[in-house]
Design brief:
The complex is a heterodimer. Helices cover 33% and strands 25% of the residues of chain A. By secondary structure, chain A is an alpha/beta fold. Chain B has one domain: ABC transporter involved in vitamin B12 uptake, BtuC, CATH 1.10.3470. Classes of the chains: A alpha/beta, B mainly alpha.
C-alpha cells in the first residue's frame, strides 16, 4: 500500500552543514505518526520543510501521490498541512476567536463580523471537545489551553495533516492526558497527526507508528507494537543506555539547609523541611501548588513574609539573589529562553556571568581573557559541552548544551545548595543522561539539591526523597523506597495519600 | 580569546573610505590635512556623546534628553565659569550631568516608566530648566578665553577635540570589552530577567547607563560651548536625534544586548565625510539632507541583511 504522505529523498543543508540527508518514508492516512530522535537529529528541520518554512535542497513531498509545492507557509496550508510549533504563534492580546480566525476572518459587507466569528469559534471548539470561551484573551489562558487553541486554529484551515512539534514539553501529566484524548479525537475524524516528542511514554500511549532519525539520517520506521522503550532509545542514540536503573544515593546525616515555617501570603504557607548533604530532594505537585514560588523565595527572587532558614547550622537572611549567591545557594531557571541564557552573548560570557565577580582582576578592573577562558574550559571538560568557539553566540548551541552552560554558570562557585527547576526539560536523551550523571557527582561531593521535575518518571528516577505540595503547603514527604506515581499524585491532589 | 569582531564594522569603514575617495576625486580640496582634521573635529561632539549612548542602548534603554542636558550644561559652564572660573564651571556641569543621569535612571527603574517616555519627559523638564537658568538669554563668555583650548588648542599637533574623542573611545572600548561593568551592561540589555537571576543589580546598571550618556554629553558640551563661546538654553535641539541615529547606524542593536563602539565611531565619520564632501561641492543643505537620508537607508538595509543572515543562522538548524 502506498502512503498518504510520502517524503522522498529529502535533503537539506545550512551553510554547507547537512541537516537532513536523503530522508524517505511514508505516513499512512489517519494515523498518529511519531518522529523521534535526539536534539540535532533533524526532526524540527523536516517538520519545517513540511510546513513550508524551509525549502528542501533535494527531494520531494507527495500527498496522495501528487507532488506538492511547499515554497512558503501558505502553500503548505493549501496542501492541508498545519504545524503547531514548540513556541506558540498566538497573539496574547487578542481573544481566542480572533486568534483562530486570524487569517480567514468572517466578514459581513467588508467589515469583521464579530458575532459570526465567535459563533464559528465556539462551534469549532465544541466539535473538538475543548472547553474554552472564545471571547477570553489568549494571555489569560494556561499553557495547555493555549495549545488547544493552536490545535483549533490549525483545524480551522481544514488541514488534513497536523504536525505537533513537542506539544507536551510544557504540560503536566493531566494536561498530557487531555492532549492524548484530543489526538485520539483527531484520528477518529480521519486526520493524520505527526507528533514529535522526547517523552517515550507518551509515544507508546499515542502513536501508531514511529520513525527514528539520527544525525540527519533516516534510521527506521516501525509500528509501535514492534517496539520497546529500550529499542527506541537504541535506535535514537545508536547504542543502548542503561538509564532506567536507579542511581546510588549519597545522602549524608548532616543537614545542609533547614527551613522552618516559611510563608508568603497567597503563594505558600508554613513550609518546613530539612535538606541533607548529598541529597536530591524533589518538589512535586501540580501547577500552581506553590513549589516554584517557595524555591524562588529561598533564592531571594521572592521575599517571604515569615519563616527561618538555616544553612550549615547558621541562621541566614535571604533578602536578595545576591545574598543567596553569597551564602552558597544557586538556582537554575526552568525557562531557559526567557530567564536563562543571554542570547546575544557568547558561550564564554554566558558561562562566567556569575563567577567573574569573584575573579581577581588586573588593576582591580581589567578582566584577563585567559582567566575567563580557564573557567570555561574547566566546565567544558566536566560537562562535555560542545561548541565551536568560546566566542560563539549561545543561541547557536543545542538545548542540551545551553542547559549545561547554565548549570556550569552556577557550579563555578563553591555552592552548598543547588535549586533546580526542571534541569532536564526539553533536552534529548543523551544530554539528560549526562545531566543525571552530573547530579550524581555533585551529591557525591556533598551538595544538597532541591529540584522540580514535572515529569513524574523523572522525579521517581532521580530523587532521594520527594516533598509533595498542594495549595502552597507540604502534604506529603515520601522516601524513594516508597515512591510510586499514584501515591505522589494523591498527595498532590490533597487527598493525603489515599486514592 | 578575541572578543571584538572587526567584520562588524568593516562594511561601514569601507563605506567611509569609498565615499571619501569618490569626493577626493571630485574635489581636490577634500584630501588636505586641514580638511581631514576639520572632519574629525566636526565629528567629535556627536561621536563622544554617541559613545555614552552606545552603552545605554547596549543596556536596552536610550536617552532622548541629552539635547536638553547639553543646553543645561552649557548654561552652567557659562554662569558658574564666569563667577568661579572655568575649572569650577566644568566640574559643576559634570556634577549636574551625573545628577541628570541618575534622575533619568531612577525614573526608569523605580517608577518603572519606559526609557522612551521617561526621557521624553525629562527632555522637556531639563530644557525648561536650562532656559530658566539662562533667563532666556545667551550668556557670552568672551572673557573666559581659556575655554578656547577645548576647541582650537592642540596636543602634539592634534586638535584637542580629536584627542578627547580618542581618549573617550579608548576608555569606553576597554570598559565595554574587558570589565565586569561592560559585561553586565550587555547582560542587562540581552536578558533582564536572566541578569536578575544571576544576582546582577539590574537597577544599578540601568542607572549607570543613563549616567554614561550624560557624562559623554559633558565632554561634547565643553567642546561645543568653546566653539560657540556662549551658553544658551536652546542649543542642542537636534542633538539627541543625531546621536541616536549615529549609534543605530553603527550597528548597535536597538533592543539591547549588543553594542558596537567602533561602529558608532565609523558611522559618525561616515555622516561627517558626506556632509563635508557635499559642502565642498557646494550642494544646498536641503539636498544634503535628502542625500544623507538615502545613504542611511542603504546602510540600514546592509546592516539588516547582515542581521537577518545572523538571525536565520540562529533559527535554522536548531532543533
Amino acid at each position: 500500500m502506498s502512503g498518504f504522505l510520502e517524503i522522498k529523498h529529502v535533503s537539506k543543508s545550512f551553510y554547507g552543514v547537512p541537516a537532513l540527508k536523503d530522508i524517505s518514508f511514508t505516513i499512512a492516512k489517519g494515523s498518529v505518526h511519531a518522529v523521534m530522535g535526539e536534539n540535532g537529529a533533524g526532526k524540527s528541520t523536516l517538520m519545517k520543510i513540511l510546513g513550508g518554512v524551509y525549502q528542501a535542497d533535494e527531494g520531494e513531498v507527495l500527498i496522495c501521490q501528487k507532488r506538492q509545492k511547499l515554497d512558503n507557509v501558505q502553500d503548505a496550508q493549501k496542501a492541508g498541512i498545519s504545524v503547531i510549533y514548540q513556541e506558540f504563534n498566538l497573539i496574547p492580546d487578542l481573544t481566542v476567536a480572533e486568534n483562530i480566525f486570524i487569517v480567514n476572518t468572517p466578514k459581513k459587507r467588508g467589515l469583521v463580523d464579530k458575532r459570526l466569528r465567535n459563533e464559528k469559534a465556539e462551534e469549532l471548539l465544541k466539535s473538538l471537545n475543548i472547553d474554552i470561551n472564545p471571547r477570553v484573551l489568549v494571555k489569560d489562558l494556561s499553557v495547555s489551553k493555549k495549545q488547544m487553541v493552536e490545535i483549533a486554529k490549525a483545524l480551522s484551515h481544514d488541514s488534513e495533516i497536523i504536525i505537533m512539534d513537542e506539544p507536551t514539553a510544557a504540560l503536566n501529566d493531566d494536561e498530557v492526558v487531555s492532549l492524548g484524548r484530543m489526538i485520539q479525537h483527531l484520528k477518529e475524524q480521519g486526520k493524520t497527526v505527526i507528533y514529535i516528542s522526547h517523552r517515550l511514554k507518551e509515544v507508546f500511549d499515542m502513536a501508531d507508528t514511529v520513525t527514528v532519525l539520527r544525525d540527519g539520517t533516516y534510521v527506521d520506521t516501525k509500528p509501535i507494537s514492534e517496539l520497546t522503550e529500550n529499542l527506541i532509545i537504541k535506535l535514537m542514540v545508536g547504542h543502548e543506555i542503561n538509564g532506567r536503573k536507579r542511581r546510588e544515593s549519597h545522602v549524608r546525616k548532616e543537614v545542609v539547609l533547614k527551613v522552618r515555617n516559611l510563608s508568603k501570603a497567597g503563594l505558600f504557607e508554613d513550609v518546613s523541611f530539612d535538606l541533607h548533604k548529598g541529597e536530591i530532594l524533589g518538589a512535586a505537585g501540580l501547577m500552581g501548588c506553590g513549589r516554584e514560588e517557595m524555591l524562588s523565595a529561598l533564592y531571594g527572587l521572592i521575599k517571604a513574609d515569615s519563616g527561618q532558614v538555616w544553612l550549615d547550622g547558621e541562621q541566614i537572611q535571604i533578602k536578595s539573589v545576591k545574598d543567596a549567591l553569597h551564602k552558597g545557594i544557586c538556582f537554575l531557571t526552568d525557562d531557559r529562553k526567557e530567564s536563562g541564557i543571554f542570547p546575544l552573548m557568547s558561550v564564554q560570557e554566558n558561562m562566567t556571568m556569575i563567577s567573574i565577580r569573584n575573579l581577581k582582576k588586573k588593576l582591580g578592573f581589567y578582566l584577563r581573557a585567559q582567566d575567563e577562558l580557564a573557567q570555561l574550559n574547566t566546565m567544558t571538560e566536566i560537562m562535555n559541552i560542545k561548541y565551536s568557539d568560546p566566542s560563539q553566540k549561545i543561541s547557536f548551541l543545542s538545548g542540551g548544551n545551553q542547559q549545561k552552560v547554565l548549570l556550569g554558570r552556577n557550579l563555578l562557585l563553591q555552592n552548598k545548595v543547588f535549586i533546580m527547576l526542571e534541569p532536564a526539560r526539553g533536552i534529548d536523551v543523551g544530554a539528560k543522561e549526562e545531566i543525571y550523571k552530573l547530579l550524581h557527582q555533585l551529591t557525591e561531593q556533598g551538595m544538597g539539591v532541591l529540584a522540580v521535575f514535572s515529569d513524574m518518571n523523572e522525579l521517581i528516577q532521580v530523587c532521594d526523597r520527594a516533598l509533595v505540595f498542594w495549595q502552597g503547603r507540604i502534604t506529603g514527604d515520601i522516601k524513594s523506597e516508597d515512591f510510586n506515581k499514584e501515591k505522589i499524585l494523591s498527595h498532590a491532589a490533597g487527598r493525603g495519600g489515599k486514592l | 580569546m578575541k572578543r571584538y569582531k572587526c567584520s562588524d564594522t568593516a562594511g561601514l569603514l569601507a563605506a567611509v573610505i569609498l565615499v571619501f575617495t569618490v569626493f577626493s576625486c571630485l574635489y581636490p580640496n577634500m584630501l588636505t590635512l586641514f580638511n581631514i582634521k576639520n572632519i574629525f573635529v566636526q565629528v567629535s561632539t556627536t561621536a563622544i556623546a554617541a559613545a555614552g549612548m552606545t552603552f545605554a542602548m547596549t543596556a536596552g534603554v536610550f536617552d532622548l534628553s541629552i539635547g536638553s542636558i547639553q543646553a543645561l550644561l552649557s548654561v552652567i559652564i557659562a554662569q558658574v565659569g564666569l563667577q568661579f572660573g572655568l575649572a569650577t564651571g566644568i566640574s559643576a556641569a559634570a556634577a549636574a550631568a551625573v545628577f541628570c543621569g541618575v534622575i533619568n535612571g531612577l525614573v526608569v527603574v523605580k517608577l518603572k516608566i519606559q526609557a522612551f517616555a521617561a526621557t521624553l519627559v525629562t527632555m522637556i523638564i531639563l530644557r525648561g530648566a536650562a532656559v530658566l537658568l539662562a533667563h532666556g538669554k545667551e550668556i557670552p563668555i568672551y572673557n573666559m578665553g581659556s575655554i578656547k583650548f577645548f576647541s582650537s588648542g592642540t596636543i602634539l599637533e592634534i586638535p584637542v577635540p580629536i584627542v578627547m574623542m580618542i581618549l573617550v573611545y579608548a576608555v569606553s572600548f576597554a570598559a565595554y570589552e574587558y570589565t565586569e561593568f561592560g559585561m553586565y551592561m550587555r547582560s542587562v540589555g540581552s536578558n533582564l530577567k536572566a541578569a536578575e537571576i544571576s544576582g546582577i543589580c539590574t537597577g544599578k546598571y540601568l542607572i549607570l547607563a543613563f549616567v554614561c550618556t550624560a557624562v559623554g554629553t559633558v565632554f561634547s558640551t565643553v567642546i561645543t560651548t568653546s566653539q560657540i563661546m556662549f551658553g544658551k538654553g536652546t542649543i542642542g535641539e537636534d542633538f539627541a536625534m543625531d546621536v541616536i541615529t549615529t549609534v543605530v547606524l553603527g550597528g548597535t542593536v536597538l533592543t539591547g544586548g549588543k553594542g558596537n563602539l567602533f561602529g558608532t565611531l565609523a558611522a559618525s565619520l561616515l555622516i561627517a565625510v558626506i556632509k563635508n564632501g557635499l559642502n565642498i561641492g557646494g550642494m544646498n543643505t536641503y539636498y544634503q539632507q535628502l542625500v544623507i537620508g538615502i545613504v542611511f537607508i542603504a546602510a540600514l538595509v546592509f546592516n539588516n541583511g547582515k542581521n537577518l543572515h545572523a538571525f536565520r543562522k540562529k533559527t535554522e538548524g536548531r532543533e
